[in-house]
Each structure stands twice: as structure tokens, then as C-alpha cells.
Amino acid sequence: MNQPFIKTEKIRFKHVDYAGIVFYPRFLEMLNDLVEDWFEEALDRPFHEMHETNGIPTVDLKVQFKNAARLGQVLQKKLWVKNLGFASVLCGFEFIDETGKTTLSGEVTLVNVAFNKDRNDIKAEPFTEAMKVKIMNFQL
User: For burial by CB atoms within 10 Å, which of 15, 47, 65, 87 has the most?
Assistant: First the structure.
């Protein structure tokens, strides 16, 4: 059975606002970190190598803020594949606190793109068959 990609994140002072809760843009940075870690650790496609010729921009993002996350908490961040297309992947995600409450959930669509040498043009590029196999290991 396939499993989600999971990482933990400790809520630090840099993540919170004056009220001591995570400032909403920091959640999006945490999500981007999760995607970047997934590509490097699970898909063997680290951003520092991929971005020499390709990219994986977010083209659609749906987010629901469910509960506040506070300074000092540790969140479990989960990412899984909902649908794999020609050059895109739709992922679900959920951040859960130590008590089991969901703090954040949603969907993110990523598109595999290639850009030319001058980086003035990008276009969707299909995932390789090998990459599709790796990605599908995370489909739930």
C-alpha cells in the first residue's frame, strides 16, 4: 500500500505573528519546503539540479486553515498524490498538530516545465516514465 510523504516541522519564532500563532504565509513556505523535500528525498530530483533546465511551479493552490498552530508546536506535514497527468501532478496535503488536529489542508497542482537556455521561455514537459513510477508510489 502506498504511503504519504511525511516530514515534521517545529513552529519557531520566525513563523508566528504578534499573537503567537503561525502567520498564514509561513504555512505556504512550509508547504513549499515539503514539496522541495519530497522531490529531493523521495523522487531523487533535488531542486538545485532540476532548476538548471527545468522547474516545477505551482499552478493551482487550494488551502483551508483549520486550526491555529502555535510557537513550540511540532506539526506532521503529509503530502500524497491524487492525480498524475501528462506534465502535472495534483497533490493533497495536511498538517497535523501533536493532538491530532488538522491545522492546514488542501491541494496543490504542480507542473513539470522546461525552459530554454536563455530562460525566456518555458513550456510544460511530460514526466519521464521513471519519474511517473516514483511519483505514483505516493498515490493514495
Answer: 15
Instruction: For residue 19, give the C-alpha cell.
Output: 499573537
pTM score, two decimals?
A: 0.94
> Could you tell me how many residues make up the chain?
140
The span from the CA of 70 to the CA of 74, in Å, is: 9
Query: What contacts 139, CB < 8 A, 6 or more positions away?
Result: 2, 80, 81, 82, 84
